[in-house]
């Protein structure tokens, strides 16, 4: 883990948690491009989950399912908490959403479902203190 976490990362977390998924992607992508490992893959995992949620907002079920899986797979290699993020909680929430999406299928998603339907509970990044 790096000694200092860039301010842009916390901006990306705030964007994620307030539903600004495309902005979160842009913020974290800028960090990802410049980062070395292990942060590079960590940023990529979170930004892929963010893009998955952006796809879901746009009723792109396939894109949401693919990127939820890819982002989660990248984050699975990290400890329970990493860079101030409760990774296990983010993975758990993402897995629950992925399972729900797979069960209901692409034809059952409507714009009115997002954020209002408890069935489609969107992940949030939970922070941990050191």
Automatic annotation (TrEMBL):
InterPro entries, A to Z: DUF309, TTHA0068_sf
Cross-referenced Gene3D superfamilies: TTHA0068-like (1.10.3450.10)
Signal peptide: none
Pfam family, one: DUF309
Name of the molecule in the record: DUF309 domain-containing protein
